[in-house]
Each structure stands twice: as C-alpha cells, then as structure tokens.
User: What shape does this take?
Amino acid sequence: MALVDERELTPPEGRTVLVAGATGYLGRRLVGPLLEAGYRVRCLARTPRKLDAEPWRDDVEVVQGDVTDPGSLGPAFEGVHAAYYLVHSIGAGDRWEERDRQAAENFRDAAAAAGVSQIVYLGGLGDERAGALSPHLASRHDVGRVLASGPTPVTELRAAVIIGSGSASFEMLRHLVEVLPAMVTPKWVDTAVQPIGVTDTLTYLVGVLDNPGAKGRVLEIGGADVVTYREMMQTYAEVAGLRRRVIVPVPVLSPRLSSLWVGLVTPLPADLARPLIDSLVNEVVVHDRSVEEVVPHRPIDTRSAIALAVQRVGERATLTRWTDAELFGRTPADPMTTDPDWAGGTVLADHQQRSSTAAPAQVFAVVSSLGGDVGWLVGEWLWAARGMIDVLVGGVGMRRGRRHPTDLRVGDVVDFWRVEEVEPDGLLRLRAEMKLPGEAWLQWTITAADGGCEVEQSALFHPRGLWGRAYWYSVAPFHRLIFAPMLAEVVRRAEVSSAAGPVGGASPGTATPA
Assistant: This one.
C-alpha cells in the first residue's frame, strides 16, 4: 500500500522536515515514509541514542532537544520547512496536561520564529458538543488549539484507536482479550469507536504535508467501519484464534476502577492505562469526512487492521535499512525491536548466554547440525517424549528429520521445527510446527568477541490465551533440564572442533566426542 497518494505536490527534494516525537510509536514509523517521499528528515529527541537501532538512522539527522525546553528548539528548527508534532506526556506522572500545553506553546513559538510553513499534529477524536471529554481527549484538543494559535498554519488530524503492534490502546485491548476468556466490564464496552490502522494513519500524516487543502484545518480520520469496544474485542479473539470472549457489562464499575483493574491484568504502565480507560466513555467516530477530498484514500476495516497487527507478534526482526521493510513484506503494523517491552503481545522466554573461545563459524556449525541423526545433545528422552505427545494430538512429531546433515536453508524442516531465518555464522531461528496453544521459536545469536564469541540461545513462546500461559509454565521445569545444558554442550563441541582445526571437515555434531 502506497503511503503517499498520487497527486500533484511541490517536489519535496531538499526540504527538511522536523519530526518531534521520533522516539514514539508513530514517530518511529513515520520517518521511513517521509524518506520514501523524498524529504530530508531531522529527528528531535531528548535522548538521541534511543534512535541508534532504527533501520533508517544513517539516513536522517538527529538533534538533541526537548519541547519543554524552549532554548533547545531554536537549533532544531534551523532550515526546517515543516514540522510534525507527535509528542504526548500521557503516562508521565501528575500534571501531564499542563506539561503538554506548555510544550505545545514552546513548539508553536519556535516554529513561528523559524518561519516554518506548516505544523502537522495528530490529536484525538471526540465531539465536545456531545458532552464533557475525558482529560486525555480534552488535552489532545487543547494542544491542537495552542499550536493553531500561532502564525504557522497547522493541520490537526484527529483519530480514535490506532490499531498496530505497539499502539498503547491496541496493546491494552490485546492483553485483555488474550488473558481473560471472560470479563466483567463497565458500560463503556458498548461505546462507539472508529479504529484506524497504523498504515492508514501514516498515509494521512504524509498526505497532508505540503498539501494546500490541509493547512489551517482540523481533519477527522478513521477506518472503514464503526464498531463498539465489545465488537473490537470479539474481532481480536476471532482473528487471534481464541474462543469467543464472555463480556458482561455492568453499570456499577466506573472507568477509574476499571483502569486499576486493567493495570493488574495487563503489562501497560498504570499511569498510561488510566487516562486511556477514562477516555473510553466518549464516543470517538468521524462526523466530518472532508479529509476524503484532501487526501483521497480508502482505509481498511477493523478486522483487516487487527489481522495485520497480530501476524508477526513473536518476531521483532531487525532490518538493516528502512527500505528493507517492503522487501520482507513488513508493514508499520508489525512489532519493532525498539517498541516498549509491553508492545507486540506477550512473549515468554528462556534466555541462555555463554562465552566461547571458538570462532563464530565453529559455533554456528554445531547449532546448524542439530536435529535429525545428531539429535539435540541433551535430554534426548524428553525430546522424544514431546514428539510422541505431538503425534498423539495430531502433530508432526520428531519423525521428519532434516534435508541435509549440516546445511540449512530458510524453509527447511528440522524434526518438528522449520527454519525461519539463517544468517551464516550469526543467526539461526527455528519456528515450531508442533501442536501448541501458541507460537514457539528456538533461536541462536552468535556475536564475535575478543578471543572467540558470545552465544545467546533463546526459547520464545507467544501464548494463545490462558491455556498458552498454563502450557509454558507447566513445561518450564523441563526447560531447566534442557536449555542451559544444551547451550553448554554446543559451546563445548565448538571448542573441541576449533582445537581440531578449521571448519570444513566432518559435521561437528558427529565428529566430536559426545
């Protein structure tokens, strides 16, 4: 899906766009499309090193600054043509509304002093004429008014729930539905909402830039359908392969009590969850569709947006460049390595790490020979028992072996695993194809170090509902018997092979002593 609609625009080459909030959920995902559109991008960050791992880092300029410190904004705005304001203090302790207002005033004044041609701001939907807005939504509207009170033309996009892995509202919904097969909720569960996919949101954010029809306007954006929060939860359950959830709304639970309860059930920080829950009492739907004339675009529906957001829950793949996203079929709805820990769904893990005097190639030769006739080095009877259980429940078991004793390619079968990613001497990731209440991976990451290498072995599991969590904790004692000793044996065999000579002869899994 193209992130820029085909329409006449002033050529953007050479124009610098400032992104304030580049370390946030949308900011990180917006930079790539802006580069793709031909703009130069400057990222404003309080802690620039937080952007070091981004795949587009070498293609942008990063400046240190803070919207709450007006003295730091002058240098950030030098030579800037337009600016995005994607900053929000929600979840940052008490008096966050006051900090948001002051930050917006600072940004407005700095943009005016620099002669910026346009500010693009993403706020929140909510009809003030229908009644009092929650503090969260009221603050979002207030920030928009503050930005627009200066001489710089402002385009304010207003959205409801943004669906995508890493979006706070979506992650709250994800964790509630994953953990609770039945829930008692307040009346807000039947509030109307018009969710929008993150890719559609980015389309509008890029589409209004340098768009004369967008300047000085408030534009409402939403997905293709209007649903209730109850319907959104049931849609998530269906898309994620969970049973239909039992949802019982009662009039006695206040949003405030609900926010405390959500803080116990989900990993979202309580200071972030509470304002979001408070906002659920307000209907957030699009009433003014004038954005369709400004940025012609057909957004996807809620079900499609959720499907995109859950398709790669267990994989936070690191891309070498932002342009690789299209090559690997990834979308902005996918998890990113730099998302918060609570984003991307629950991933339970067993991490083991060891140093080795062997070269990375020696260690990789051992791990790439596992399975088949070589086996898994430790606890073979446990592996065999797990394979038998898998066969009994209709799975593939351990009977498939492998195509070649040492060579691995993406897509190869290794017993009840399938090779998902291979980077010679650096990475091997296997995805489980056994019958499981979730998704599982086994991964080795090998990094060169002085005198040898560092080896990290990770068993990862994305549970499906409560049964998935129960499964993981029931097998955790057996993990202690397998995974740490297995990595130790991998390292031992690699070091024996290293002492015998360079890689290239017989398989390290068969040529070294057991």
Observations:
- Residues 465-500 form the longest helix (36 residues).
- The two ends are 53 Å apart (CA to CA).
- The longest strand covers residues 438-449.
